């Protein structure tokens, strides 16, 4: 059942190319443009939207945070991603046509059974929204109660630490952003074609890089056994990835880990940096690359051990980091799909090296059905 792997988590990480192919299947037309008829959202409705509210917990919330950036870039929509346990109890603001809010509410959940996400979705519906859901488990409570569902098609995820669910959520939400961008006229046909063609290449790119990344993570883990904690840094699309990397590490190694926007480093977290701090920096080639590198210089000056995730051929990054996981070149909005796997494999190998229970970490359940 683990497909010959020692743990479900490793099996599920390595399955991501297949899972992503399933996510994309039939959702990009022969014309190379997004097809999300399953959502039944008309152009008029899409143009009237003023903002998007994503609600989720844990890893699904991180996928929502990635999507806020995709929605801004592709569909010129203001978007927020809020933790469901906060959303459900905040003062209710009108969301429907009568309130004039014109918000699209999107619940994101692997299991479709997370109590807080379900309750937040109900609160949004009570406020006049017609929530849609991005869910993995078919027929789950959230899928049944939503007005429209986009299934992520990751297949069953058994390991408590979510991996393939995350990348398929990111890909599904990316398609949603591209679809809204087309309906709203903010994403040109040629722009959409280019992005979706690049998206179509991601499963092959991942397949090609995974063996090397897995071997590298295995070799690296023994060098990290003396680390007392970890700081994950990233900017733009890299920031939600930093949060996700830190959550993976916390869950399955029990080491303390924090995710921060790299630009916040000077506002506090740099005090943590020293030889026993692992600093993981998500630094693919993007608009903010130079700024992230200068943060890295400051970490090196304080003897932090730096593991970087960067784009092939980046000599400057290779010079500054103690180890680098290399990603193939991709358009900036697609970097999260490539950067997730090294973060997952790093946490996985360190968990194994520390002798932790990888698939069933202490104190955690796969789906949190009580608040
Ligand atoms: O099933 P959901 O996506 O709603 O679950 C949300 C979180 O409980 C989940 O992502 C959790 O944070 C994972 N264990 C993270 O690896």
TrEMBL record:
<keyword id="KW-0315">Glutamine amidotransferase</keyword>
<keyword id="KW-0677">Repeat</keyword>
<feature type="domain" description="SIS">
    <location>
        <begin position="41"/>
        <end position="186"/>
    </location>
</feature>
<dbReference type="GO" id="GO:0005975">
    <property type="term" value="P:carbohydrate metabolic process"/>
</dbReference>
<protein>
    <recommendedName>
        <fullName>Glutamine--fructose-6-phosphate aminotransferase [isomerizing]</fullName>
        <ecNumber>2.6.1.16</ecNumber>
    </recommendedName>
</protein>
<keyword id="KW-0808">Transferase</keyword>
<feature type="domain" description="SIS">
    <location>
        <begin position="220"/>
        <end position="361"/>
    </location>
</feature>
<dbReference type="GO" id="GO:0006047">
    <property type="term" value="P:UDP-N-acetylglucosamine metabolic process"/>
</dbReference>
<dbReference type="GO" id="GO:0004360">
    <property type="term" value="F:glutamine-fructose-6-phosphate transaminase (isomerizing) activity"/>
</dbReference>
<dbReference type="GO" id="GO:0006487">
    <property type="term" value="P:protein N-linked glycosylation"/>
</dbReference>
<dbReference type="GO" id="GO:0006002">
    <property type="term" value="P:fructose 6-phosphate metabolic process"/>
</dbReference>
<dbReference type="GO" id="GO:0097367">
    <property type="term" value="F:carbohydrate derivative binding"/>
</dbReference>
<comment type="subunit">
    <text>Homodimer.</text>
</comment>
<feature type="active site" description="For Fru-6P isomerization activity">
    <location>
        <position position="366"/>
    </location>
</feature>
<keyword id="KW-0963">Cytoplasm</keyword>
<comment type="function">
    <text>Catalyzes the first step in hexosamine metabolism, converting fructose-6P into glucosamine-6P using glutamine as a nitrogen source.</text>
</comment>
<dbReference type="GO" id="GO:0046349">
    <property type="term" value="P:amino sugar biosynthetic process"/>
</dbReference>
<keyword id="KW-0032">Aminotransferase</keyword>
<dbReference type="GO" id="GO:0005829">
    <property type="term" value="C:cytosol"/>
</dbReference>
């Amino acid at each position: 059942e683990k497909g010959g792997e020692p743990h479900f988590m490793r099996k599920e990480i390595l399955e991501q190319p297949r899972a992503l192919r399933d996510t994309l299947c039939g959702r990009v037309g022969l014309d190379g443009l997004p097809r999300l008829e399953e959502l039944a959202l008309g152009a008029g409705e899409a143009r009237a939207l003023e903002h998007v509210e994503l609600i989720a917990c844990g890893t699904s919330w991180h996928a929502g945070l990635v999507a806020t950036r995709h929605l801004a870039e592709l569909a010129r929509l203001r978007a927020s991603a809020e933790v469901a346990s906060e959303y459900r109890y905040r003062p209710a603001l009108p969301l429907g046509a009568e309130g004039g809010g014109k918000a699209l509410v999107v619940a994101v959940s692997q299991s479709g059974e997370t109590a807080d996400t379900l309750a937040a979705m109900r609160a949004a519906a009570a406020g006049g929204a017609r929530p849609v859901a991005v869910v993995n488990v078919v027929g789950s409570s959230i899928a049944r109660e939503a007005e429209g569902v986009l299934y992520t098609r990751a297949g069953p995820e058994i390991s408590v630490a979510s991996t393939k669910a995350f990348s398929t959520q990111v890909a599904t939400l990316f398609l949603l952003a591209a679809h809204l961008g087309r309906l709203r006229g903010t994403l040109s046909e040629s722009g959409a074609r280019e992005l979706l063609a690049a998206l179509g290449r991601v499963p092959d790119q991942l397949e090609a890089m995974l063996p090397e990344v897995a071997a590298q993570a295995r070799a690296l883990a023994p060098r990290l056994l003396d680390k007392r904690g970890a700081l994950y840094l990233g900017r733009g699309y890299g920031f939600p990835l930093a949060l996700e990397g830190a959550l993976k590490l916390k869950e399955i190694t029990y080491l303390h880990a924090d995710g921060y926007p790299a630009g916040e480093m000077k506002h506090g977290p740099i005090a943590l940096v020293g030889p026993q701090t692992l600093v993981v920096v998500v630094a693919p080639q993007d608009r903010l690359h130079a700024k992230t590198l200068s943060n890295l210089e400051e970490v090196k000056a304080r003897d932090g051990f730096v593991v970087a995730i960067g784009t092939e051929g980046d000599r400057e990054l290779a010079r500054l980091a103690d180890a680098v996981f290399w990603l193939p070149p991709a358009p900036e909005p697609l970097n999260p799909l490539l950067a997730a796997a090294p973060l997952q494999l790093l946490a996985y190998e360190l968990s194994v090296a520390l002798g932790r229970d990888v698939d069933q970490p202490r104190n955690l359940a796969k789906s949190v059905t009580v608040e």
